[in-house]
Structure formats: C-alpha cells, structure tokens
Amino acid sequence: MLVGIDLGTTNSAIAAIIDGEIVVFKSADNREVLPSVIYIDRNDRRLFGHRALSQAHTSPTNIASGFKRHIGEGFEITFEASNLVLNAEECSTEILKQLLARARAQVDNGTEITHAVIGVPAAFNQMQNEATKRAALAAGLRDVKLLQEPIAAAIASEEMSGSTSDAFIVFDLGGGTLDVALVQNLLGSLTVERHEGVNRLGGRDFDRLIVDQVLVPWLLDTFDLPNDFMKLEEYTRLRRVLQPAAEDAKVELAGQEQSGIFVPEDNVRTVDLVQTPIYVDVDLTRERFETLIGPLLDRTVAVCRDLLKSALYEPEDVDRLVFIGGPTRMQFVRDYVSNALGIPAVQEVDPMTAVAIGAAVFGATAAVVDKSSKEAEEERTQADVGVEFQVQEVTGSETARFRLRIKDPKPD
Ligand code: ADP
Ligand code: MG
C-alpha cells in the first residue's frame, strides 16, 4: 500500500487513497496532524507529537522540534537527560515511524505499507532531498518518491475542488516561514515555475505579536515588573508560558470572535518585585488580533507580487490561490490575501492536510510528471536555442494560452 506524507517543520500528516476515497489517518485522540516533536527522558522513554509538545515548557532540553530546517546538515540535537544525540535525519525517521504506525493501526491487518510519496519544499536541494529519502527508508519504507510541496497542494486542490486550473499560486504559511510558489499546469503536467521563501514570517510571528503587543503591556500594567523583564533570566519561566498561551488564543480566534488568555499562578510560578504571584488573564478580540497581524499579511502579499513580477505574470494570469499551512486556517487571512491580489481562493482544501492528500493522490495516479523527472529534464535541454515555448495544445475554449520565454544564454 502507498501513503502520502507531509513531513512538516511544525506538523506532519499522513494520508492514503483507499477504495477511491481519500483517508487522512488520525491519531487515537482524533487529531489529523502530528506535531513534529520528540521528547526523550533519561531512561530513553520517548513521547511524540502533542504528548512531546506538552513537555516543552517543563523540559525544554529534552525536546527536538523544528529539525526539518536542518535535514541534510551535520547538525545534531542532544537530549540532555538521556545524553542521546540525534541528527535531523534520525529525528525525521522517528516521526515517520509514528506516522506509519498510525496508518497501520487503521488499515486491514496484514496490509503492508511499503510505498510512500513524501512532500519536500520546492527550495530543498539535493542533499536535503536525499536525507529525506534516507530517513524514510530507515523508517521501514521500501519505495519512496519525493514530490514538491506546492505541487502536492495543487494536486489536492484539483482533487478536492473538482476543477483544473492553468496556473496556481500556492501560498504556504507555516510555523516559521512563508513559501509561495507559482505552479503551472500544462496539459496535466504540473511544474513549479518559480518559488520564493521568507524566513521569520509564519504562525510563530503572529504569536510573538500577541505576546509583545498584548501580554507584555498587560503584565507591566498589572504587576510590579522591570520594563525589560522579557530579557531577564529570573523571568524565563514567565516568558516560556506566554508563547503557548498566545498560540492557543490565536488558534481559538480562527473559530470565534473572542478568546481569553489565561495562565494560572500555578503555571507561572514566578513573583513580581513586591512578591505578588504572577498570572495572566487577558481578553483578546479577533478584531484586535486582525489589526495586529495586518502588517505581516501585507508583507506576505508583497512577496506574492514579487513572485508574479519575477515570473512575468500578471495576477489575472493566475486562476487560483491555494492556501496551505496552519495560519491559513483563518478565513480572515485567506480573504485578506485573496482580495489584495485579486485572485480567487480554493476553499475546499484543508490547509493542514493538503500536502499529505496531494502526495497520496499523486502516488495513486502517478499521472502527473514533475519537473525533476528525467523526461522534463530532456524537454528542457532540447530548448538550447534559447527560447522556451509553452503552449496548450488542446483546448475547448475560444482562447488558448501561449507563452514564449527567452532563456539566459548558457554560461559555458
Ligand atoms: P509547518 O509547515 O511549519 O509544519 P504548519 O502548517 O503546521 O507548519 O503551521 C504551524 C502554525 O500554524 C503554528 O504557528 C500554529 O500555531 C498555526 N496554526 C495551526 N492551526 C491553526 C489555526 N486553526 N488557526 C491559526 N493558526 C493555526
Ligand atoms: Mg508545511
């Protein structure tokens, strides 16, 4: 059996096509995503996903997270209590094993999971791709194909919306990065025309804004604290509880108008300068939150405009915006970007599972060829003369798209 996998920096997911139906494998407690987090205690007992994440503030030195950023590098993570050292590839293997176990628990007994299509960022180089493949083979898979994440998302979008498009922008706002890609569909063959990535522009920056603009001013007003307490060692614990509290509120605001941010004294376990135990109890409205993140969203729109410009596309050349990544679960974010660019959004795709679903669909049909394949490579080298044509050969409509591009002269 074949599965599609999103091995994400923050969250991962696994899906398959079973009897023609899309199945996203859930955890025992009914969650579709598995946080890409590992906790190891001093006796080498391991927790994964949400359970690992819940150890993050009490035991931050025994946690690995965000390791996808380092895959294919020598970078190693030490789990202090156990003194175990894992590199990013080994951490990825651990997460993949968890995902596979989750899928195995839900398919018929005896069905072996041997094949997988795994999403990788369009920006991954060969080292990163190879490391991802090795991680998957080490997790027990026999046949592993990689698929660029924006292509997976575009496939999911076609599958879920039931319509095909000529050109997409895949807007992937994750935990820490924004990745935008222009995906062109030419006769059913999807290619990433161009992509752009921005670090430090993701969900965590939304959390940071809530902390800096809402929680810190409230704490300074309510308690007797030094103005720079966020920089002081003795307030480390307070600082650590603020981010998850802000994140919970943000996620709640995706579904409701107002959220209470509450951290009891027992969790903060810190006193102010006059020995008053510190707690957090602040209301945040969606309206206020939307105002806070406006400037960040403007930056994401600017990145999309740059992407279009560098590809010599006008917004009207793009049929659809496909949103993936946790923060795009907020309708406000989707509407904001879609309106600013004047490109309609695909609404049918769930931003958290699109990559896994698209990878599973790709694996099941294998009808789509991506640019990294040999065939596409040959097509490209045939265009040595310096011009590249893109033409839609068969069309039912009055107009057809025809694109001609002058390529840079070959450096040799
Ligand atoms: P990555 O691609 O880095 O693995 P994800 O796409 O899983 O990241 O996104 C993680 C981010 O999405 C986190 O910052 C998390 O707080 C945020 N997030 C998850 N669900 C929601 C939601 N419903 N509303 C807003 N943000 C969300
Ligand atoms: Mg992602």
Note down, in words, how this protein is organized.
- Residues 367-372 have low confidence and may be disordered.
- 40% of the residues are buried.
- The chain has helices spanning 49-53, 88-104, 126-138, 149-161, 203-222, 236-253, 265-268, 286-310, 331-341, 354-365, 374-381; strands at 2-6, 11-18, 21-24, 34-35, 37-40, 46-48, 63-65, 76-79, 84-87, 115-120, 143-148, 167-173, 177-186, 189-199, 258-263, 280-285, 320-324, 387-391, 402-406.
- Strands 1, 2, 3, 4, 10 and 11 form a six-stranded mixed β-sheet that branches. Strands 14-13-12-17 form a four-stranded mixed β-sheet, sandwiched between helices.
- The chain is α+β, with helices and mostly antiparallel strands and 412 residues long.
- Helix 5 (203-222) runs antiparallel to helix 8 and helix 8 (286-310) crosses helix 9.
- The site of magnesium ion (MG) has 4 residues, from loops.
